[in-house]
Specification:
This protein is an all-alpha fold. It has helices spanning 2-16, 23-39, 63-66, 71-78. The chain has four helices and no strands. The N and C termini lie far apart (37 Å).
């Protein structure tokens, strides 16, 4: 299940990096993200702090995962998203 989850995330990332998109490629991106979300719970078993597993808030609600849900909205509006990144540039250190 973990390998499937990672595969769907990698497929999502690789397809999102296409220089141009069609309705079909956007549908595939949505499918891969949905499949990732369906399988991601396998990683909760590996969570570093076991007591957090008992909390209802133990989830994947953080910005780098959340931003993926907006890709399929933004691609038709702005085109390829290659120019966007959540990484901090080295010059800002």
């Amino acid at each position: 299940k973990a390998i499937s989850c990672i595969r769907y995330l990698i497929d999502f990332i690789l397809m999102a990096q296409y220089r141009s998109h069609t309705v079909s490629t956007i549908a595939y991106i949505e499918k891969y993200l949905q499949k990732f979300h369906e399988h991601k719970d396998v990683f909760l078993a590996c969570y570093a702090r076991k007591e957090d597993l008992l909390e209802e808030e133990a989830n994947f609600n953080f910005s780098k995962i959340h931003i993926l849900s907006h890709y399929t909205e933004q691609i038709p509006r702005y085109g390829s998203l290659l120019q966007y990144s959540t990484e901090i540039y080295e010059t800002y250190h």
